[in-house]
Amino acid sequence: MKPSALYRLATLCLLTTGAIVYLPGLSGGFVFDDFPNLVYNERLTAVSGWNWPEIWRAAWSSESGPLKRPLSMLSFAFDHASAGLDPAAFKRTSLAIHLLCGLIIFMLARILMRRLMAANLAQDTRQADLAALLAAGLWLLHPLQLTSVLYVVQRMASLAALFSALGMLAYAVGRERQIKGQKGLHLIAAAYLICLPLASLSKENGVLLPVFLLLLEMFFFRLRATYQHQRTILITLHLFCAILPGALGTAFLIVSPDWILRSYDNRDFGLYERLLTQARALWFYLSVIAVPDITRMGLYHDDFVVSRGLLTPPITGLAVGALAMAVALVPFCWRRWPVLGFSVLFFLAAHALESSFFGLEMVHEHRNYLASFGPLLAFGYLVGSCMRRWPDSRRAMLLGAAALLCVTASATALRAWHWGDDLQRARLDARNHPDSPRSRIDAGIQLIALANQVAAPEALLDEARSNLVHAAERDNYGATAHLGLIVVDNRLGRPVDNAWLQRTLDRLRTPPIASATPGAFIKLLQCHRAGPCSFEPRTIKALEDALAANPALRPFDQAMIDTEFAQLYMDAGDALSALGYTRQAVARAPDAPQLWLNLAATLLANGQPGEAANAVDEAAHHDVDRFHVQRISTMRAQIANWRGNNSRQD
């Protein structure tokens, strides 16, 4: 078999293996941020078939990031149009994106390896291709990539990575053509003019593509070209697309620190603490890339200890120093070990937005989706270089590489199998991360959901309670576990413990406030309103007052709570009290058309059609994307019918 055919077969085998190892995980459900971004996104779930106005509204329905990530949301809208809210359909699309990205990564790695390793000997070329195949295979099959595939909303990360990798490939092919005296500027232009916008509109990380292209040029192509004007164009591109924007962005952040500091308003750590912690987080990521131990992985990493100083914990100073040393050694690698210098800077550049100064959560695995390409490329180069240096051991090294790929694929398959069952995944995460409040809360929620479906739920509720107790003891500022415990005790027929209730009230009224806390309180109200919970009114009122007293509570979250109370009173037949809460909700979020429509319905229930009509007009005024047109029309018809019926009675 010819070498080219052999590599095509090997690539096909890798892609097939990649598909197979993920198959067990396709049966799992939505998790964590999937719910606010997808499941509870009314504009997405309203997509019915291939209705293009609905799809277009869904594409712009995300509140994540300043660019709103319309391309990722468009892909979610396509999934919903074809299969509804079926998590398996969403995950199949994400898997297809992952496989395509793996193919592009291999093609890119092959070009880069050949530039580093191949001279004029065919044997050198084969070794370069083997090294590229190993690097791409490890990237494709690594269990750390799993959350970017089976955690559906992280398609935003994988889609941005796909277009970034495609841009790097187009640039590399274009530069190769230029070095050979052929035309390649059109491919370089495509990287900037096509791939950069597509990546950025998938997720904001896409804006880093010019930095990646600059690194490719620095370490692999080094401004080599047949003609001088090609060098001039390249220098101009990198200057105006990477260096100058980076300098301007840095200057803006220096003169406008409030823009960054606002992102810490609801965090229990500050900018200094985050930067210290991220030094340790980056080394943690590298250790997991190097040793794919799935017991160290998980959906949640909120058990990662925050660094409060260089010696708290003591390893912080060592992590910062080692990181600074790695960066300082890059110039010495430029000529002799360019792949090592590229690996260091590419890994850090890929983490530049999510693992730096912005007040995001400390650790998430999906941040390594593209970043891991750098270290794995260096590892593949190391293996290829060893094959060239010690040709007699080449067969043993090939067997070792194949074994490593098998072990990596097996770890991913095992992890995917765990993700195929939500309760199994949650229980495993809670066992592997016993100090993670979110892992414990997730396990508790899954157990409560299962308890709702069985005749004898006591054992499941007791297990849920144990997890929630552990979560509450370790959660520094959230109240989800506290509220969950009140629900579980109520389900078990136990009275509310006054000491625990007081502790919960203190947590609710004390800033900062976790983003999940208002939703947890709404879930408690829904359990009380629709069953199977039943709380005393004074308990509900105490919880409401405590949360309302928290100055960090967002007005829109308070409006959603008011809406739930309005529904509670409407169900109880108290339309007047419901009207009071509905008015409060509108006052807190006057730009939300659905709240005006809720007010119109409540006003009509209280016999006030005139004010109801005014509320509908306000809803129409704020319905910028015309999402509520049908409901507005229905509400106007109901008001007209009410007036007609009452005029006949008169």
Please give the structural blueprint.
Layout: H1 3-22, H2 34-39, H3 42-45, H4 52-59, H5 70-83, H6 87-117, H7 122-141, H8 147-150, H9 155-179, H10 185-200, H11 209-221, H12 228-255, H13 258-261, H14 271-290, H15 315-328, H16 330-336, H17 338-350, H18 373-389, H19 394-419, H20 422-432, H21 437-451, H22 458-474, H23 480-491, H24 498-509, H25 517-530, H26 537-548, H27 555-571, H28 575-588, H29 593-605, H30 609-622, H31 629-649
Helix pairs in contact: 1-6, 1-7, 1-19, 4-5, 6-7, 6-9, 6-18, 7-18, 7-19, 9-10, 9-11, 11-12, 11-17, 14-15, 16-17, 17-18, 20-21, 21-22, 21-23, 22-23, 23-25, 24-26, 25-27, 27-28, 28-29, 29-30, 29-31, 30-31
Description:
- Helix 1 packs parallel to helix 7, helix 11 packs antiparallel against helix 17 and helix 23 packs parallel to helix 25 (517-530).
- The longest helix is centred in the first third of the chain and has 31 residues, at 87-117.
- The chain is built from 31 helices and no strands.
- With 650 residues, it is mostly helical.
What is the overall number of helices? Answer: 31
Largest sheet geometry: none
- What is the structural class? mainly alpha
Subunit organisation of the chains: single chain
Report the β-strand fraction as a percent range: under 5%
Rg result: 28 Å
Distance between the termini: 93 Å
Contiguous low-pLDDT stretches (5 residues minimum) are: none
Question: Based on CA inertia axes, which overall geometry fits?
Answer: globular
The portion of residues assigned to helices is over 70%
User: How much is the average pLDDT?
Assistant: 91
Number of strands: 0
